[in-house]
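USER:
Make up one protein:

ASSISTANT:
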Amino acid sequence: MSYLIIALLGMVVVQSFLFTIYLFKYGDDAKTSILRIFTLVIGLHFFNLMLGRIIYDYQGYGLSWIFLSSYGPLIFIYVNYFLKKKRRFLLLHLLLPLYPLFLWAFTDKLHQESSADQYLDYWVSLPIYLSLFTYLFLSLGKIFQTTDKIANLKWLKYLVISMICLVLVHTSVLWFYSSGKEELANWLYAGNISYMIFFLTGMVFTALSKPDFFQAINTNSSRPKYFYTNLSSSQKKSILGRLESLMVQEKPYLLQDLTLEDVSEKLGISKRHISQVINEKLQRNFKDYINGYRIREATEILERNARDIRIYEVMYDVGFNNKSSFNFSFKKFTGLTPREYRKSILLKEQKTIENY
């Protein structure tokens, strides 16, 4: 069991340090810097725990309390920065780890034989665990109370709730150790470390698959809708050209159930990129773009055969299956209803005949 625990601790250390380095990719803003410090502290904490398992008569257990006492303030500060709350005096919360540091430097309370012995000393455990749970639940409260339309709140919930679970299990591990139930404590300890590995793996996977996930995104911000796409100007022009060619040559807009997915499959281009090109190049959405072609087709049919064809026949022929939608779109693009448009054609024809 001891070797298993050492191996699991080593995995946490490696994950933490590597992820800390990876986070430099996100820049040096305060929010990211705090997250880097947090993952670094996790790595140092578990490295210290690993040393306690490897080195006989290790005297550095007290350092773990210093690392543990910094989790709460770091998460609390990170949540406040993420949610863009008031930041005045926030960094003063980082003074909390000075308490166990004081105990380490000026007393013998953090120089006992094991962390379980230190757990029984309420001068050590009670203030640290009380502050830790206070910070975590205050952070959770801020997340659930936020009224701003900020995306990625799931990430914050994942972070805080995972830490609450980890700390709860951690307290039970120390309690079982101090009660002499070492075998059960070891199994719980291995489970706790495994959960930390799972927690860090989730962070790593999220960072790799969704690079913007750790950013607080205000849905009301002025950031462009397609800020995170990488289409160049030439690519947009090429996509628009292929789209226009498809419309002219195959006339897919005549199909009543045509969808963006259908066009995407025909062109072999993602739906998002097609939508982006229509939005940015033509200042329309997909529905208006397709209806524009349908109304153009309808006007051509009416101009060729205004006397003999009925309006509802034109409606079905050009891809509409709803009269009100057809009338609305027709007036939107021509300024006239279909009947008014046909009447104007017939009047022109009558004037032409009279002139002859």
In short: The longest strand covers residues 150-151.
